[in-house]
Write a structure and sequence with these properties.
Shape: globular
Bound molecules: guanosine-5'-triphosphate, magnesium ion
Radius of gyration: 36 Å
Largest sheet: 8 strands, antiparallel
Number of strands: 34
Strand content: 15-25%
Number of helices: 36
Structural class: alpha+beta
Strand order of the largest sheet: 14-13-19-10-11-18-15-16
Distance between the termini: 79 Å
Length: 1103
C-alpha cells in the first residue's frame, strides 16, 4: 500500500460510517508508540523496516531522547478491508502519570481505544487509570497484549506456560473492567432512584412510566439486567490481539481459525469458539473435545497457535537453523530479501518473516474497524453526559438544546446541520511547519525556469571572476559577483534575522467535529465553561460567556506534518488554526447558541510540584511573562500563577512534567535563559496528643508537658494555664479571648479534606443567608452535606467533643480547610454552620435563634482571626491541618454609649475605621478608662482579629507541634537481584514499604511504598540508575502524613543525653524541613553557624 493521497483521505472523511476515531492507551512503556509505528508503516508513511525503531509519533526531541511520549499526537490512516475503505484517526497518548492529562484530552475526541498491556508486566497502575478514563468517557476499548516475544526470549516460558500466563493477564484486565461496570450500575441505580423520587415529588409522573413504583425495594441492584456481554475482553469475541509490536507480528484468533479450518477441514466458526479455552484436539477421532486441563492435554490455542510461534523463534533466533527456517518459510508462503536473511542480527530475519506472516497492523486495524464504533454509533447516554454540565439534568435543559441531541446522533454533514466542535487542547507548531508556509514541490516548468536562472548566474559569476583576475575595476566586481564578498556574506544573515523573529509559532487546536461541516473561515460561537444556553437563547447580545471567532485554517493531523484542508465533515478529528485569542485550553464551538459547553475534561493528576521561575536577565521579564502565558495555554495540566510575593510560579504534575515545561519555556515559549528555584515543597503544620514515650522509647512523665508549655512566653495580656488554655486580652482591654488547641482525630481531618468542595458550598450558602438571599442547592448537595454532618458526629465522640458538630463556628483556612473553630463560650448562642441547611430543608424552627447581643456583631472578627491563624502557622508559616481551636472564653467590656458597631464583614472591612474613632471607648478596665487610648491601638475589630489570631497561635504552640509532609505512593516493579538496591534507595529517602509481592508467573516483585514529596526529586532517576534501568517507579500524590519527630526537640532525659549526645545534632528530619521552609521564606532560622570556634582546623593536617 503506497502513500495514501490527500484526496483519498478527504473522500474517506465524508463517510462517517467508515471512520474510526481511536486512541492508544496503556501504562508507560508498554509499547503504544511502537505499535503506532507499525500502523503508520502500513500506510507507507514510514518504511516498515524502521517501524518500531523510529517511534514516528514521538516527534519532539526530548521524547526521542528519554524514550517516553509526552504529548498525544494524531495521524490519519487508510485501511482497506475487503471492499470497504476505512479512515482511521489514530491518537497516540503518553503513559507516564505526569502526562495523564494528555490522555484525558485524547480520550474525549475518540469513540474507541486500543488498550495495550505488556505481557510480562500485566496490569499496572496506569493501565487501570486509562481503563477508568475510557470508561468515564463512555468509549469502547479493545485489547492488545503486547511484547509476547518477552515471554519467549526473556522469561523463557514454554508455550503451555505462556498460555496460562496470558489467561491470567486477561483475567486481570477483565477484573478491572468488571469493577468499573459494577460501580457504574450501582451509581446508575442511585441516580435513577433519586430521579424517581424527585419526579414523584413533582407529581407529574404517570404510574405506567414508573414500573418500579409498586416495588418496595429492588434487591437485585440491577446487575442481572444489565448487559455486560460486550464488556469483557475475550479472544473469541474478537476484541483481543496478541502481538509483539517490536517484531512486527500480531494476530487475533480469527486469523488462525481461518488458516486451520482450511488445513484441517473444521468449520471456522467451530474453531473460533474453541481456539481459546479448555479445548483439545482428539487426533484419532478428529474431534475437538472439552476438558484439556483435566485430561492433561494441550489446549488448542497452544497446539495450533503458540507452538507455531515458539518454534519459529526457536529456529530463527535461538538455533539459527537455516534448513528449518527455509522449510518454515516455504510452508508459510513467505519470501524475504537476501539482505534480511543474511543479516547478522537474527531479529531482522524474524521480523521480516513475521511481518509478512502475521502483520500486526492487519490484525489490529481489522479488529479496530470490526469492533470499535463509528461516529454514527454515538450512544445517547454519552451525548447526554457530555451536555449535562455542572450535574444539571439533561431534561432540565431548554428544548432547543435537547433537540441538538439528534444532531449528535445523526452526525450529519448537511449544510443545514448545526456545527458542533470540541477543542480538547491547544498545541504549538512552528509557523514554518504550517502547510501554507511550506515549500510545495516544484512543477516541471518551475524547475526548468530555476535551472535556467542558476545557469545564468553561474556564467555571470564566471565572467566576474575572470574580470577580477585580469585586474580590471575592483569596485565594479563587488556589484556583479553575487554573494561572494565577505561584506555581503555578513549582510545576508542580518537581513534574514528579523524575518525569523517575525515567524512566530502558532497555536493549533486539537479538535473533533461532532456535527455539521466545518469550513475554512467559518464563524462560530465559543461557549465558555459557564455559558448557559438558556441565557444565550433569551438574551440579546452581548450574552455572558459567549464569544465569536473565525476558524482561519483547518488541518489534517498527520503526526509530524499538517495538511491544509478546506472543509472537514462531521465525525472527524482535525486541527484548527486561528483560535488562540478565544480558546485558552479547551472549548466548545458551535453555530448554534443552544449548545451548552461540554462537561470539563476529567484529569487524573493533581499538579503538586511548584517552582518559582526567574529570567536570568531581569530585563527579560516581559518575555518570561508572555512565555508562561503561552505555556499555560499549551499544556492541559500545568498551572501558571503569580504569588502574593510577586514570584512567578509554575505548578506541574511531577518531576518529568516539570522538566518538559521548563524545556518548553526555554526553547519555544519565552526563548530566554531562565532559572527555576528548587521545587517548593508544601508542608502542613499540626498539633498532636502529647507523646507517651520519649525519643529513646522511655516512658514520659509530666516533664514533657512542662517543657512544651515553657515555649509560650507569658506577658501582662497573655496568660497560659497548665491545661493549655491561652487567654489573651486586646491592647485596649475591651475583649478577652480564651482559646485551646485540640488535635482533630485523623479520620476527621481526612474527611474534611476530602469534602472541601462541599464545605465551600456550605459556606456560600451561609454567606447568602446572612445577606438575606437563598442559594438553591440541588438535593444531591443537601444530602451530601447531611451525610457529612452525621459522619462528623460519628467520628467526634467522647466527652471532649460533646455536641461539637453543632458548635462548629467555622472551617479554615479560606473557610473550607481541614481545621475547625469551635464555639465553647458559655452562654454564647450563635447559629451553627449547618444552620442554612435546616432552612433549606424548611425546618425553620430547628436553627438556633440569632442572639441580638452586642458581641454577636464581632462574630466575624473572631472568624477572621481564626482564618489568619490557620492560613500560616507558627512553625514555618505553612497552613495548618487537623487542628481544632476551641474558644472557651470571650468577654467583652463595652463602653456604655457605643453608637456604631464596627463589626467587620468580609466585604466592607475598610469602612470600619471611621466608626471607631467616632466612638470614644470608655472601657471599665484599668488603663483603658481614657477614651483616646482606644485610637492608638487602631479599630477595635482589628484588634480583636489580631487577638484571636495570636491566641490561636499561642494555643497551637502550647501543644506538641508537628510538621506534616505530602506523600507520594509509588509502585516499583523489580527483579529479585535488584530488590535490595531498591530498598536501599527507598530507605535513604525516608520511604516506607507498604507491601511487597511477587507477580504471578514472573520473577518480578511489586513493591508498594510511600515516599515524602520532599525526598522525591531525582528518585525515579536514582532507582533507574541503581537497578540498571530495570525498575522505574511512577509517583502519584496520595496524602498528608505527620512527621513523627518533633522539630523543637532537645534532649531532656538522661537516656536521651546518652543516646543523642548533648548537641543532639543527628539529623532531625522535621527540623531540617522546617528550617528549609523558613530560610526560603526569609524567616529567622535558629542555627549555630560556628559550633566550636577554637577547634576548627583542617583535619588532614593534624593527623
Ligand atoms: N520486547 C519487546 N519490546 C517492545 C515491544 N514493543 C515495544 N517494546 C519496547 O518497549 C519500549 C517502550 O516502547 P514505546 O512504544 O515507546 O512505549 P510507549 O507505550 O509508547 O511508552 P510511553 O509513550 O512513554 O508511555 C521500547 O524500548 C520498545 O522497543 C515488544 O513487542 N517486545
Ligand atoms: Mg509512547
Amino acid at each position: 500500500m503506497g502513500h495514501t493521497s490527500l484526496d483519498k483521505i478527504k473522500a474517506l472523511q465524508k463517510n462517517p460510517a467508515n471512520v474510526r476515531n481511536l486512541c492508544i492507551l496503556a501504562h508507560v512503556d508498554h509499547g503504544k508508540t511502537t505499535l503506532a509505528d507499525s500502523l503508520v508503516a502500513s500506510n507507507g508513511i514510514i518504511s516498515s523496516r524502521l517501524a518500531g525503531k523510529l517511534r514516528y509519533l514521538d516527534s519532539r526531541e526530548d521524547e526521542q531522547i528519554r524514550g517516553i511520549t509526552m504529548k498525544s499526537s494524531a495521524i490519519s490512516l487508510h485501511y482497506a478491508s475487503g471492499e470497504k475503505d476505512y479512515l482511521i484517526n489514530l491518537i497516540d497518548s503518553p503513559g507516564h502519570v505526569d502526562f495523564s492529562s494528555e490522555v484525558s484530552t485524547a480520550v474525549r475526541l475518540c469513540d474507541g481505544a486500543i488498550v495495550i498491556v505488556d505481557a510480562v508486566e500485566g496490569v499496572c497502575p496506569q493501565t487501570q487509570a486509562v481503563l477508568r478514563q475510557a470508561w468515564l468517557e463512555n468509549i469502547r476499548p479493545v485489547l492488545v497484549i503486547n511484547k509476547i516475544d518477552r515471554l519467549i526470549m526473556e522469561l523463557k516460558l514454554t508455550s503451555q506456560e505462556a498460555y496460562t500466563h496470558l489467561q491470567k493477564i486477561l483475567e486481570q484486565v477483565n477484573a478491572v473492567t468488571g469493577s468499573l461496570f459494577t460501580s457504574k450500575v450501582l451509581e446508575d441505580r442511585a441516580v435513577k432512584e433519586e430521579r424517581a423520587e424527585e419526579d414523584k415529588e413533582e407529581g407529574d409522573i404517570k404510574p405506567a412510566e414508573c414500573p418500579g413504583s409498586e416495588q418496595v425495594y429492588d434487591w437485585s441492584a440491577g446487575l442481572e439486567d444489565s448487559d455486560d456481554s460486550q464488556l469483557y475482553f475475550s479472544p473469541d469475541q474478537g476484541n483481543v490481539v496478541f502481538a509483539s509490536a517490536i517484531d512486527g507480528w500480531g494476530f487475533s484468533i480469527q486469523q488462525f481459525a481461518q488458516i486451520h479450518s482450511q488445513r484441517m477441514g473444521i468449520r471456522a466458526e467451530v474453531l473460533l469458539k474453541t481456539l481459546w479455552g479448555d479445548f483439545y484436539l482428539n487426533a484419532k477421532a478428529k474431534k475437538i473435545m472439552k476438558g484439556a486441563h483435566a485430561k492433561g492435554k494441550k489446549p488448542l490455542f497452544v497446539q495450533l497457535v503458540l507452538d507455531n510461534i515458539w518454534s519459529l523463534y526457536d529456529a530463527v533466533v535461538t538455533r539459527r537453523d537455516k534448513e528449518k527456517i527455509e522449510k518454515m518459510m516455504m510452508s508459510l508462503g513467505v519470501k524475504v530479501m537476501t539482505r534480511d536473511s543474511r543479516h547478522s542480527d537474527p531479529k531482522v530475519l524474524l521480523s521480516a518473516i513475521c511481518s509478512q506472516w502475521l502483520p500486526v497492523s492487519q490484525a489490529v486495524l481489522f479488529m479496530v474497524c470490526d469492533k470499535l464504533p463509528s461516529p454514527l454509533d454515538m450512544t445517547s447516554e454519552r451525548i447526554e453526559r457530555l451536555m449535562s454540565v455542572g450535574a444539571r439534568r439533561f431534561h432540565s435543559l431548554p428544548l432547543q438544546t435537547q433537540e441538538l441531541k439528534t444532531a449528535f446522533m445523526q452526525c450529519s454533514s448537511d449544510d443545514t446541520a448545526p456545527v458542533i466542535v470540541f477543542v480538547s487542547k491547544m498545541f504549538m507548531v512552528d509557523a514554518k511547519a504550517l502547510p501554507q508556509n511550506k515549500q510545495r514541490p516544484l512543477t516541471q516548468e518551475e524547475m526548468g525556469q530555476r535551472r535556467e536562472l542558476a545557469r545564468q548566474r553561474h556564467t555571470e559569476r564566471l565572467a566576474a571572476i575572470q574580470q577580477t583576475e585580469s585586474g580590471e575595476g575592483n569596485a565594479q566586481s563587488g556589484s556583479t559577483t553575487p554573494a561572494t564578498t565577505p561584506g555581503q556574506m555578513q549582510g545576508l544573515p542580518l537581513k534574514a534575522k528579523p524575518e525569523e523573529e517575525e515567524e512566530k509559532e502558532t497555536f493549533v487546536a486539537f479538535a473533533r467535529v461532532y456535527s455539521g461541516v466545518v469550513r475554512r473561515g467559518q464563524k462560530v460561537f465559543v461557549m465558555g465553561p459557564k455559558y448557559d444556553p438558556a441565557q444565550g437563547l433569551a438574551c440579546l447580545p452581548p450574552v455572558p460567556h459567549l464569544a465569536c471567532c473565525t476558524m482561519d485554517s483547518l488541518y489534517l493531523l498527520m503526526g509530524r506534518e499538517l495538511e491544509e484542508l478546506e472543509e472537514v465533515p462531521s465525525g472527524n478529528v482535525l486541527g484548527i488554526g486561528g483560535l488562540e485569542e478565544c480558546v485558552l485550553k479547551s472549548a466548545t464551538l458551535s453555530t448554534s447558541p443552544a449548545l451548552p459547553p461540554f462537561i470539563p475534561l476529567n484529569f487524573e493528576a493533581t499538579p503538586i510540584v511548584r517552582v518559582a521561575i526567574e529570567p536570568k536577565h531581569p530585563s527579560e521579564m516581559p518575555k518570561l511573562v508572555r512565555g508562561m502565558r503561552l505555556l499555560n495555554q499549551a499544556d492541559p495540566c500545568a498551572e501558571v500563577l503569580i504569588q502574593e510575593t510577586g514570584e512567578h510560579v509554575l505548578v506541574t504534575a511531577g518531576e518529568v512534567h516539570l522538566q518538559r515545561c521548563l524545556d518548553d519555556l526555554r526553547e519555544r515559549f519565552a526563548k530566554i535563559e531562565i532559572s527555576a528555584s528548587k521545587p517548593i515543597i508544601p508542608f502542613r503544620e499540626t498539633v498532636i496528643r502529647p507523646p507517651k514515650v520519649d525519643m529513646v522509647n522511655e516512658d514520659l512523665g509530666k516533664q514533657q508537658k512542662v517543657a512544651v508549655i515553657h515555649q509560650v512566653k507569658e506577658s501582662d495580656t497573655l496568660h497560659l494555664d497548665p491545661s493549655g488554655l491561652v487567654t489573651l486580652t486586646t491592647p485596649n482591654r475591651q475583649a478577652t479571648v480564651g482559646v485551646r488547641a485540640i488535635p482533630l482525630p485523623e479520620e476527621v481531618t481526612l474527611l474534611l479534606e476530602g469534602s472541601a468542595d462541599l464545605i465551600r458550598t456550605l459556606e456560600q450558602a451561609g454567606q447568602a443567608q446572612r445577606e438575606g438571599r437563598t442559594l438553591d442547592m440541588s438535593t444531591w448537595t443537601l444530602d451530601a452535606l447531611m451525610v457529612l454532618k452525621s459522619r462528623l458526629e460519628v467520628l467526634l465522640q467522647g466527652r471532649k467533643w460533646r455536641n461539637a458538630v453543632d458548635r462548629i463556628w467555622a472551617f479554615g483556612p479560606r473557610r473550607y480547610g481541614p481545621n475547625i473553630l469551635l464555639n465553647s463560650v458559655e452562654g454564647y448562642q450563635r447559629p451553627s454552620v449547618w444552620h442554612c441547611l435546616e432552612r433549606e430543608k424548611g425546618e425553620k424552627e430547628g436553627g438556633a435563634k440569632a442572639e441580638a447581643s452586642a458581641i454577636r456583631d464581632f462574630d466575624n472578627s473572631v472568624v477572621s482571626g481564626f482564618q489568619l491563624a490557620t492560613l500560616s502557622g507558627p512553625m514555618c508559616e505553612e497552613p495548618l491541618m487537623g487542628v481544632c481551636f476551641s474558644v472557651e472564653r470571650w468577654d467583652m467590656n463595652f463602653p456604655t454609649q457605643r453608637t456604631h458597631l464596627d463589626s467587620v464583614t468580609e466585604k466592607d472591612s475598610n469602612s470600619l475605621d471611621a466608626s471607631v474613632s467616632e466612638s470614644p471607648g470608655e472601657g471599665a478596665m484599668a488603663g483603658a478608662s481614657h477614651g483616646r487610648l482606644v485610637d492608638c491601638y487602631g479599630p477595635f475589630s482589628g484588634q480583636l482579629i489580631a487577638a484571636v489570631k495570636e491566641a490561636c497561635r499561642h494555643a497551637f504552640q502550647a501543644k506538641p507541634q508537628r510538621l506534616m509532609a505530602a506523600m507520594y505512593t509509588c509502585e516499583i516493579m523489580a527483579t529479585a537481584e535488584v530488590l535490595g538496591r531498591v530498598y536501599g534507595v527507598l530507605g535513604k529517602r525516608e520511604g516506607r514499604v507498604l507491601q511487597e509481592e511477587m507477580k504471578e508467573g514472573t520473577e518480578m516483585f511489586i513493591i508498594k511504598a510511600v515516599l515524602p514529596v520532599a525526598e522525591s526529586f531525582g528518585f525515579a532517576d536514582e532507582i533507574r540508575k541503581r537497578t540498571s534501568g530495570l525498575a522505574s517507579p511512577q509517583l502519584v500524590f496520595s496524602h498528608w502524613e505527620v512527621i513523627s519527630s518533633d522539630p523543637s526537640w532537645v534532649p531532656t532525659t538522661e537516656e536521651e543525653y546518652l543516646h543523642f549526645g548533648e548537641k543532639a545534632d543527628s539529623a532531625n528530619q522535621a527540623l531540617k524541613y522546617m528550617n528549609g521552609v523558613r530560610r526560603r521564606k526569609g524567616l529567622y532560622v535558629e542555627e549555630k553557624i560556628v559550633e566550636h570556634g577554637e577547634k576548627q582546623r583542617t583535619l588532614s593536617k593534624n593527623k
